[in-house]
Amino acid sequence: MEPIVPPPSQQTVSRTFDTCRANTVQIVNGSIGITPIVPLALSGDGHERALAIADSAEMAVWRLNHGQAPMIKGAHLQLVYAEGEAEIQGICSWEILVPLGDAEVTVEYAIRFRPGWNLIRNRIVDFIESWSGAYQETYMIIDTVGVLPEDVAWFSQ
After folding, report:
1. What's 51-112 look like in SS3?
2. Which of 98, 83, 109 is CA-nearest to residue 18?
3. Calpha distance 28→53 (Å, rounded)
4. Residue 147 counted as domain residue
5. pLDDT digit string (tens) for 88-139?
6. pTM exceeding the 0.70 threshold for the entire prediction
7. Contact indicator for 56, 38 with CB cutoff of 8 Å
8. How many domains does the chain have?
9. Considering the domain boundaries, does residue 94 fall inside one?
10. Rounded to the nearest 10 degrees, how much is the dihedral formed by the CA atoms of 109, 112, 113, 118?
11. What 3-state DSSP class applies to 18?
């Protein structure tokens, strides 16, 4: 089989992950192009179905509905194609205003892109209700994994 390579992307490591104003996140090779994808599959009736890799059906529903379903704690994975090697390491924190006062948002990064396809794991460790009534992640861990963890499954919608 021929390897699948997505078309070149305008998305880069820096454009995606260089959002920490505190400069506590180190990025190596930030100009490397990356292409995240949502895999699709054909169902038995010939309709396209979006696929998600997650540690629960509820997390998959939240992911596949772009956050329009109830948020839960857990993990989802995403396939990302990288045009070369890049790295994002560090912890970024900032304050947000919520109905109960100020809350701290923390994101831990431990990402090592290798050329080709990579698995990025996004873990929602904690969240809080925002002013709009929606939920906001307050503690996330984003890392790369070498193999599909045993506690996740493929889900479709």
Report:
1. EEEECCHHHHHHHHCCCCCCCCCEEEEEEEEECCCEEEEEEEEEEEEECCEEEEEEEEEEEE
2. 109
3. 27
4. yes
5. 999 999 888 887 778 899 999 999 999 999 999 999 999 988 777 778 889 9
6. yes
7. no
8. 1
9. yes
10. -80
11. coil
**Residues 52-74 pLDDT 10s:** 999 999 999 998 887 788 889 99
* Rounded Cα gap, residues 37 and 78, in angstroms: 7
Torsion angle (degrees, nearest 10) of CA 74, 80, 82, 86 = -10
Owner of token pair 């629960």: 56
**Which of 65, 52, 75, 56 has the alpha carbon at shortest distance from 137?**
75
Identify residue 18 by its one-letter amino acid code. Answer: D
Q: Is the pLDDT of residue 78 over 90?
A: yes
| Phi, psi at 99, each rounded to 5° | -55, -30
Considering the domain boundaries, does residue 25 fall inside one?
yes
Asked if residue 116 belongs to a domain, the reply is yes
Q: Which residues contact 11 (CB under 8 A, 6 or more apart)?
A: 33, 34, 35, 36
| Full domain range(s) for residue 99 | 11-37+49-151
